[in-house]
């Protein structure tokens, strides 16, 4: 290829990658597998390395690259980033509507658009002729922080817009958000690493964007919902719904849950509907934003004291409650981490009765000055166990007792050790029953080996009675061993043994994750499994591990420490003896390339997660609901409404047998 041809090829690859970025990050509807995508990216990287003169800032390869900063620069917003006035009741909404009508001097119904109010970080993105130039936080509304390099790493933010006739300059407004599942994963990793957990997804999103090192932001899973246009030179929109459509057309992720309402009554109905439905969202919202749809009317309404008069936020009650701390206990995790937990008077928060809340670690307790007997505000963030937000000091009687972190493990009595610079103290006992139990529970858990039917209480009992000492012992359990315990009948024992047997066919990433190596979460386990088998991983040199992009010195060291332990050796020998057939299921292929599956009903040969893993390995994708983009619906026994929907849309429905043929063919 000569220089000219290479340039053309580079442009073509970029267009292709942008298209797939959009399908994946904005539309949530990819056409190709991750492996195929990586291939495109590697080709582009190769060509750009050959011809650095063709590298442009809007190339998909240029997402991570900025150097760590000392501090952020300032950005002056071309139009102020306003905030919203709140309404907490139907009356307040009606009053808002009346005010709007009064200013517009009309008695006619006002058309509104309702949108979810995302609980993240507001940002502004400047595009010049369709190319992303500057990204900034809201700051005081007039001036914000320049977080451009961090925002470049957010894949839902297009570096180049699609379409013709793009405005010369345009500021896009929206919210950076972290999904609850990603938030929980991040916090788990942080707790394991002895770093303080984030209080909620919003703090995690904000903390990740306001990071001085873009490489750190790049590792955090963030997304971006565009919800408005600020300054814009070149296009005049006549309504908010038109602006949203434009944002969608040019490549932004625009949330589909919006509605055009003919009057305030319909807007209120939308608010009520989402108050219940919001639990089903993968991210947090704290209310609904109601906006006057017509831009002309918006202009006429204007703004007062930093809030527009054409919009209002209908806020949902916070998922916070007050209760009293009866005791503070210390829990031992599988890596020996000692976590103080508040035992509280039971209280209902967001529809769930809770009586425990995490206090994270000693420093957190000091910082918040939490004492036994205190009245506290607790909150639920996502699915995680609730946490103590703050103490209501006015309620103190003087009888409250400060908490002392014990110097010894409350379970095995070994010394607790808190390394310098870490927030978490750990039990040093190698044979600590609490650690053993937690390790086995982790091994059997859903995202690890997914051994169905074993409850935490079983594992506690089996460890206490010396039946099992490490996770691999599960594979040698016999029915007569199990039947010795109370509340264990024939049927349950058979089911458990069958589930253990089935787990032997797990895929390698799950096994690596299940081993519970510190700092090795699901993602890192996948990265490792794509390069090594178990033996290879065991023998990999620390330096070699560190050369893998996602793996830093801390993870590499932790892997080496794990495999150096005598206990690991014994564990691996037992695994070998148990004859797991993990390798058989693995080899990745792309025979289901780009195919979308929906699973419904119970399958007899494998769990849903296993079926999903098979599909993913073959390049396919699993989604939760049936749409016209679905290629196959796999129907097990007792299929649900998804089957009806598939029939209605004319999507192919296949049986478990047909599915097996398809993946194994
Ligand atoms: S419109 C002038 N739309 O809510 C209108 N804001 O107090 C300003 N927010 O921090 C924003 N979802 O980031 C708008 N669909 C949405 C929103 C939204 C969340 C946030 C916004 C700001 C706060 C407004």
UniProtKB/TrEMBL annotation:
Does this entry carry the keyword Manganese? yes
Alphabetized GO MF terms: DNA binding; DNA ligase (NAD+) activity; metal ion binding
Sorted alphabetically, the keyword list is: DNA damage, DNA repair, DNA replication, Ligase, Magnesium, Manganese, Metal-binding, NAD, Zinc
The residues that hold NAD(+) are 34-38, 83-84, 115, 138, 175, 291, 315
* Catalyzed chemical reaction(s): NAD(+) + (deoxyribonucleotide)n-3'-hydroxyl + 5'-phospho-(deoxyribonucleotide)m = (deoxyribonucleotide)n+m + AMP + beta-nicotinamide D-nucleotide
User: Might you report a single GO cellular component term?
Assistant: cytosol
An example Gene Ontology biological process: DNA repair
This protein's cofactor list reads: Mg(2+); Mn(2+)
Q: Where does Zn(2+) bind?
A: 409, 412, 432
Instruction: Name the protein family.
Output: Belongs to the NAD-dependent DNA ligase family. LigA subfamily.
NCBIfam families per the record? Answer: dnlj (TIGR00575), PRK07956.1 (NF005932)
Name this polypeptide is given? DNA ligase
Name the gene for this chain: ligA
């Amino acid at each position: 290829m000569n220089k000219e041809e290479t340039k053309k090829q580079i442009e073509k690859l970029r267009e292709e990658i942008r298209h797939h970025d959009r399908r994946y990050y904005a539309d949530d509807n990819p056409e190709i597998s991750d492996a195929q995508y990586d291939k495109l990216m590697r080709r582009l990287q190769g060509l750009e390395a050959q011809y650095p003169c063709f590298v442009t800032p809007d190339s998909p390869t240029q997402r991570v690259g900025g150097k760590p900063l000392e501090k952020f620069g300032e950005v002056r917003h071309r139009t102020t980033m306003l905030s919203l006035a709140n309404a907490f009741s139907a009356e307040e909404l009606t009053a808002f509507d009346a005010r709007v009508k009064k200013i517009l001097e009309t008695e006619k119904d006002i058309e509104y658009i309702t949108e979810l109010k995302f609980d993240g970080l507001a940002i502004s993105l400047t595009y010049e002729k369709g190319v992303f130039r500057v990204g900034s936080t809201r700051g005081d509304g007039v001036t914000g922080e320049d977080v451009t390099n961090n925002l470049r790493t957010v894949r839902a933010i297009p570096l180049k817009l699609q379409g013709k006739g793009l405005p010369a300059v345009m500021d896009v407004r929206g919210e950076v958000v972290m999904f609850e599942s990603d938030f929980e994963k991040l916090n788990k990793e942080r707790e394991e690493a002895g770093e303080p957990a984030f209080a909620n997804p919003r703090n995690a999103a904000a903390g990740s964007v306001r990071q001085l090192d873009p490489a750190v932001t790049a590792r955090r899973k963030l997304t971006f919902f565009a919800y408005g246009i600020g300054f814009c030179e070149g296009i005049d929109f006549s309504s908010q719904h038109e602006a949203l459509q434009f944002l969608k057309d040019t490549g932004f992720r625009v949330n589909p849950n919006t509605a055009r309402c003919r009057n305030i009554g319909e807007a209120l109905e939308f608010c009520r509907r989402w108050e219940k439905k919001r639990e089903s969202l993968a991210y947090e919202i704290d209310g609904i934003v109601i906006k006057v749809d017509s831009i002309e009317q918006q202009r006429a309404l204007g703004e007062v004291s930093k809030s527009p008069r054409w919009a209002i936020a209908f806020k949902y009650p916070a998922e916070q409650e007050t209760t009293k701390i009866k005791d503070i206990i210390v829990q031992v995790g599988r890596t020996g981490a000692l976590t103080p937990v508040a035992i509280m008077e039971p209280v209902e928060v967001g529809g769930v009765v809770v009586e425990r809340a995490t206090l994270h670690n000693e420093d957190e307790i000091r910082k918040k000055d939490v004492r036994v007997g205190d009245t506290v505000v607790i909150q639920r963030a996502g699915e995680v166990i609730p946490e103590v937000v703050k103490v209501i000091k006015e309620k103190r009687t003087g009888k409250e007792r400060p908490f002392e972190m014990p110097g010894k493990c409350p379970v095995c009595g070994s010394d607790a050790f808190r390394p310098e610079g870490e927030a978490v103290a750990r039990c040093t006992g190698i044979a600590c029953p609490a650690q053993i139990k937690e390790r086995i529970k982790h091994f059997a858990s859903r995202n690890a080996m997914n051994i169905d039917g074993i409850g935490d209480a079983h594992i506690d009992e089996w460890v206490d009675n010396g039946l099992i000492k490490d996770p691999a012992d599960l594979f040698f359990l016999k029915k007569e061993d199990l039947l010795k315990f109370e509340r264990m009948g024939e049927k349950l024992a058979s089911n458990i043994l069958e589930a253990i047997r089935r787990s032997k066919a797990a895929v390698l990433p799950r096994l690596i994750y299940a081993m519970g190596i510190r700092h090795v979460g699901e993602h890192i386990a996948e990265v490792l499994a794509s390069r090594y088998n178990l033996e290879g991983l065991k023998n990999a040199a620390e330096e070699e591990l560190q050369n893998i992009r996602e793996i830093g010195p801390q993870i590499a060291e932790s892997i080496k420490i794990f495999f150096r332990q005598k206990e690991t050796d014994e564990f691996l020998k037992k695994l070998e003896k148990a004859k797991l057939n993990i390798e058989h299921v693995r080899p990745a292929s792309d025979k289901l390339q780009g195919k979308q599956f929906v699973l419904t009903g119970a399958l007899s040969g494998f769990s849903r997660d296993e079926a999903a893993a098979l599909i993913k390995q073959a390049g396919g994708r699993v989604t939760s609901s049936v749409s016209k983009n679905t290629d196959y619906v796999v129907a097990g026994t007792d299929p649900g409404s998804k089957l009806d929907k598939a029939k209605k849309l004319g999507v192919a429905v296949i049986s478990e047998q047909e599915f097996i043929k398809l993946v194994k063919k």
